[in-house]
Write a structure and sequence with these properties.
Structural class: mainly beta
Shape: elongated
Number of domains: 2
Largest sheet: 5 strands, mixed
Helix content: under 10%
CATH superfamily of the largest domain: Macroglobulin (MG2) domain
CATH topology of the largest domain: Immunoglobulin-like
Radius of gyration: 28 Å
CATH architecture of the largest domain: Sandwich
CATH class of the largest domain: Mainly Beta
Length: 558
């Protein structure tokens, strides 16, 4: 435990100071290591369908859920090792979930779904599993779409004895309520998938028990070094000087473009490297990064790409499209098209992530002005003079500057006032002084010295407009696109108790997906669809002691 605490403190210091990034982890094996198991709903898909997944990130030594990384990654790659889809997932106590929609642009073939954390990349540890994707729309399916022959065998997968999964019936009718019960003393979150069995002969899916039995710690050491994302998304960048001046201790500001009012300030090391830790929830991907120095025009900013993988994946199993398989694909494709035709009715929901709290929202000394409660003025200068107490605008040559007196009515012109408008850090106050004041909703003031990121300010002015109306004068070279964490998907589940959806076709093959499923509930219910055949319910996960769980039952729909 003490080793983990010291490690955490070291990494936090490293990403918030001027320690050179040439610092090496002399013995990476001395630090906690992670592994990921990814539970997916199946390993055989058609384009137009969705890969549902749950991440289990655990400590290798203890097998318990890892509290180290707060971000995980899932990628879909093709046989040329090109990334087809990449997602970033927030991890809470080692758990996260998401979904990948398979577009019609994908070609028929074998792909790999992989998962990892940035910290795992130091040892080149990846979860990987083959998945088979058929595109029935691209061209007429022939045996040449895949390889030589099918020599796969259906393997018997042994279930665990830590819980008993049961259904209230063995045979159901269409659109009938199914109730699953759980008998076991397990209180850890699991994941439950209920879907129609694939009658196509394909390799057996990896499951949690088999993964544990076959996992071997890696002895490989990456040529690069990757810092763990301990507090959220970690972004790394650098600046270079156009005039060969020092790049040490330069202040760098980051502002999100959009609804999220997130502002950060970092400081560079001797090589110009800087970091931003984004621990708050956000759903924007466009950011503005700027140098907060008087000679800012003498520096060039770049983000360091840490996403390209070093490892090359191989062993892509192939699948032969026999005549029988093609008939099944044609039928399943028809049902998939019907389901997608009603996507607006069955649209999955995504909890909207909004983080518009000011950086100082906990400060008890803030003063907030709601401008509609005062006489409205057209200019920012008038608002400053007539409404804002202890705030004034000074001008030196052609440079405007907002100033603020502290609670002791003192001013400090050697320190700048931090001006934030709609989440943007406005370093050049000229960019805002002529803004239309009628678009301003509120102005909040902090009348005290404020240490923000790596820079001291003599007070803060935070301005919110009605409709995010402020558009800063941004150099396109200072705008960057970040990989944002995906929103959690809540899959569609109809309720036929009151026949609300009785007129809507229901050809779901995936009857239920519960990625945050707690066995203490003892039971769960869902409805069958208009599909008939054999269905399987599979529950997977790990106990709090790190024991792998896998349980499977089947039932039929007539």
């Amino acid at each position: 435990m003490m080793k983990n605490i010291l490690f955490f403190c070291f990494i936090v210091l490293l990403t918030n100071s001027t320690i050179s990034q040439t610092t090496k982890f002399s013995d990476i094996d001395a630090y906690p290591q992670e592994k990921i198991y990814l539970h997916t709903n199946t390993n055989f898909f058609l384009t137009g369908e969705t890969v549902l997944y749950k991440i289990y990130c655990r400590d290798i030594a203890s097998n318990t859920m890892s509290s180290l990384s707060k971000v995980g990654y899932v990628e879909l790659i093709n046989q040329e090792n090109n990334s087809i889809s990449k997602q970033k997932i927030r991890l809470k106590n080692g758990l996260g979930n998401g979904a990948i929609f398979l577009s019609s642009s994908l070609k028929t073939g074998t792909y790999k779904i992989i998962s990892y954390t940035q910290w795992m990349r130091n040892k080149q540890i990846f979860f990987e599993e083959n998945i088979f994707i058929i595109n029935p729309f691209s061209a007429k399916l022939t045996a040449s779409d895949t390889l030589k022959k099918n020599n796969f065998k259906k393997e018997f997968v042994k279930t665990t004895t830590y819980l008993k999964l049961a259904s209230n019936k063995k045979v159901y009718q269409k659109r009938e309520l199914v109730t699953l019960t759980f008998d076991g003393h397990i209180s850890k979150t699991m994941s439950l998938s209920v879907r129609k069995q694939d009658s196509i002969l394909i390799p057996t899916k990896i499951n949690a028990v088999a993964f544990e039995q076959n996992f071997k710690p890696s002895r490989i050491r990456s040529k690069k070094e990757y810092l763990p994302e301990l507090r959220g998304s970690l972004y790394q960048g650098s600046i270079t000087s156009k005039t060969n001046k020092s790049v040490l201790n330069k202040k760098i500001g980051l502002s999100f473009i959009g609804e999220n009012k997130i502002t950060k300030i970092s400081i560079t090391d001797a090589t110009g490297i800087f970091f931003f830790n984004i621990d708050a929830a956000y759903d924007a991907s466009n950011v503005r990064i700027q140098v907060l120095e008087k000679d800012k025009k003498n520096y060039t900013i770049s983000l360091i790409d840490t996403h390209k993988l070093e490892k090359k994946f191989d062993n892509f199993d192939e699948l032969l499209l026999t005549e029988n398989i093609r008939k099944l694909i044609k039928k399943r494709s028809f049902y998939t098209q019907i389901e997608n035709a009603y996507i607006e009715v069955k649209q999955p929901t995504y909890p909207f992530i909004k983080n518009n709290k000011a950086i100082f929202h906990h400060n008890k000394n803030k003063v907030v002005y709601i401008l509609d409660e005062y006489t409205r003025f057209k200019t920012v200068k008038e608002v400053t003079v007539e409404i804002l107490k202890d705030v004034w605008i000074s001008k030196e040559k052609e440079e405007y500057c907002f100033n603020i007196r502290d609670v002791n009515l003192e001013s400090n012109t050697t320190l700048k006032t931090l001006l934030i408008v709609d989440g943007f850090l406005v370093d050049n106050h000229n960019d805002f002084v002529f803004f239309d004041a009628l678009k301003i909703k509120s102005i909040a003031l902090i009348k005290e010295k404020y240490y923000f990121g790596a820079k001291n300010y003599h007070g803060i002015i935070n301005i919110i407009t009605f409709k995010n109306d402020y558009k800063p004068n941004v150099n396109s070279k200072n705008q960057f696109l970040l990989l944002k964490p995906i929103e959690e998907k809540i899959t569609f589940s109809p309720d036929y108790r009151e026949n609300i959806n009785k007129q809507i076709p229901d050809f779901r093959t995936q009857l239920f997906w519960g990625s945050n499923f707690n066995l203490t509930a003892e039971k769960t219910s869902f409805y069958t669809s208009d599909q008939t055949g054999t269905f399987e319910a599979i529950i997977e996960g790990f106990t709090k002691e790190g024991i792998a769980i896998y349980e499977k039952i089947t039932f039929s729909v007539q």
